[in-house]
Amino acid sequence: MDISDDEREFLRGMRALTIDDDGHEVFVGLNAAESEEFWALTRRNETGEDMNAVPRFKELRDRHEAARQEIVEGRASLD
User: What is the C-alpha to C-alpha distance for residues 44 and 23, in angstroms, rounded to an integer?
Assistant: First the structure.
């Protein structure tokens, strides 16, 4: 994914990124293709385009956030 080192450090600290079984950097709870799609939608959202009403963005964000919370709360491991 096209993530800067600063973004990567922040996202790793938030327990948002992991490495999948194929060695791809992915958002927890998402596969490689979904992670690319989610990151593109997230960037659009961050630059002022409100993606919160887009069903696909909400679906990916909710699945990612649920998996991330499992890690943050110690019910799942990160890598």
Answer: 26
